[in-house]
Amino acid sequence: xxxxxxxxxVDIGGQAVMEGVMMxxxxxxxxxxxxxxxxxxxxxxxxxxxxxxxxxxxxPIIRGVVNMGSMLSMGMSTLEESMKMLGEDFEEExxxxxxxxxxxxxxxxxxxxxGVAIVLAVFLAVGLFIGLPSGVExxxxxxxxxxxxxxxxxxxxxxxxxxxxxxxxxxxxxVTVVGGxxxxxxxxxxxxxxxxxxxxxxxFRYHGAEHKTVYCNENDLPLTPENARPFTTLHPRCGxxxxxxxMVISMVLFLFVGRDISAWLPRxxxxxxxxxxxxxxxxxVLKGLAHRDNWFTRIARWPGLQMQRLTTKEPDDKMLxxxxxxxxxxxxxxxxxxxxxxxxxxxxxxYRQSEKGYVFPAEEKDGEAE
Length: 370
Prior knowledge:
Layout: E1 13-17, E2 20-24, E3 28-34, E4 40-46, H1 50-53, H2 62-85, H3 96-105, H4 109-144, H5 158-195, H6 198-218, H7 225-228, H8 239-254, H9 264-273, H10 275-290, H11 295-307, H12 317-332, E5 346-348, H13 362-365
Antiparallel strand pairs: 1-2, 2-3, 3-4, 4-5
C-alpha cells in the first residue's frame, strides 16, 4: 500500500452514485457515470460555497451545520442527476399530492419531488438515529427504575436525598450510554444490510474508487488507475467516519446535558434540538483528525476508518477511470471540443480525455450523440 500523507488544506471530496462518482472541488462539481455501452458521460456545474456568499457561514461549528444541510441536498440532487445521465428511466409518476403541492407552491414537479424525498430522508434518519435510541433509553430507564427526583425531594433527609440523587445520576449516565451504543448498532446494521443489496454493493466499489482517487490527488501523483490502485479505500474525511463521530459526540454531550430526563418525548426533543450543535462540533473534529497526523489522531481515526469497511469495497480499473474523470473535470473543467449528448453532457471513451489541456480532434466533435 502506498504511504499516504495527511489531507491538504484544500479538500476535494466526493460521493459514489449508481455506476459513477461525483467530485466536489472548491468551485465546481463534476459527475461521471459509465453507461452500459462503456462510454463515460460527464457533467460539470459551477459551485459557490455558502461561506463565500456570507462569511459568517464559514465560522467554526456553524460551517459544520451548513455542510450537513448542503451535503444532504446536494447528495439527493446528485443521485437524481446521475440516474438521468445513466440513460435509464428510474423516475416514478409523481403522486397526486406532489402535483397538488407543485401547483400551490408554483414550483416544478421535479423540484417538489426532490423536496419530498429530502423530507422523507430526514424523517427516516431522525426516526432511526434519534427516535429509536430515545425509545431504548426510556425503556432502559423503566427497567432499572430511573425516574426524576420529585420536586419536594430537597425536604427529605439530607443523607437519603444525596444517596438517591447519586443513584439517579448514575442511572442517567447508564441510560445515556445505552442510547449512544444503540445509535452505533443501528448505524452498523443499516450499513451492513444496505451492502447486501447488489446495486448498493456495486456503488460501494465506486465509493472505494472515489477514495483511492482522492488519495492519489492528495499525494500529488498523476491521476491514473495504476497510481490510484495501491491506495486504501479508507479515508479519514469520509461521511461514514463523520456519522460515527456524530454518534460519539452526541453520547458525550448528553452525558452532561439532559441525562436526568427520564420521559421519552423530552429526551427526543432535546436530542433533536441539539443536533445542529452535535453536527457542528463533529465536523470540526473530523477536519481536525484528518489534517493532523500523530499517535493521538491515528488512534482517534481508527474506528471511523474501520467503519468504512462496510461502505467501501475494492474497485476495478474501470471504476477508477470514472472517479479520475470526475476529479479532472472538477479541477480543470470540461475537455475542449468534447462530443456532447443532447442534454449537454460530455461523452468520453478514455479517462485521459479528461486531463488538463486535452482537446478533442474536430472530427470527434462532429459525432455528437443524437
